[in-house]
């Protein structure tokens, strides 16, 4: 799809975006016959960034935090089901019962809004972190899907060489879940999270999801309640069921992973929600939203 099929988005206020400022120019349209050495340089840069994160104290802290918060979920699920005499296959298989990190090898991973990682250091570090996360939890890259309408041809080539499936259609975040799925959505617009929740607004689907992205609690704190309920109804509804674990603070990567949390939807919380909360409204359209932080699919 040609670049003029996408409309520009306004700069996000709540978290640092990977957009270009007024003083920076958008990258020119790159030829699909770009020299291979440019792709090689980009690949080397991504690998170097990945190594920088891997040897940092931040990654060490993040590993502990991720294993702990996901292990708590799995342990609780195992205990409940042992009491009920049923299996745990409907839950995300994160850890062994001894507490050691196992795998998410049956999960999919979907990444939205990474940005131009060939030009933006923040985007490159977020890609490096994603690669480490996939390795840590043994999620095959062939089960990982990635999309951003501003990817250049060289970036698409590198992502494919890394083993990702590059999506070609702008789903606007409306990705239906039919199996356990991790969504990696750092510094994305609120509408993207809202669309994802709307598409999967059922206890069955939400219990299969992990969202790594902007803090929902932070969104609630920054927005007027009437705006949150009017424009981002599903984020508002989800606050009654979500369990959120914030990323550890670290000055080295403060601009890269600020306002980032792991969001999970435990089944016992979902089942406790009143029936009227599950009533699904019409597809979000954001007609009254003055600052829409999303690139729309103009072919819809």
From TrEMBL:
Pfam families reported in the protein's UniProt record: SRR1
Entry superkingdom: Eukaryota
A GO CC term attached to the entry: nucleus
Membership in a protein family: Belongs to the SRR1 family.
Residues covered by region (Disordered): 1-29
Name of protein: SRR1 domain containing
Name of the gene: srrd
Domain annotation SRR1-like: ranges: 108-263
Native organism: Xenopus tropicalis (Western clawed frog)
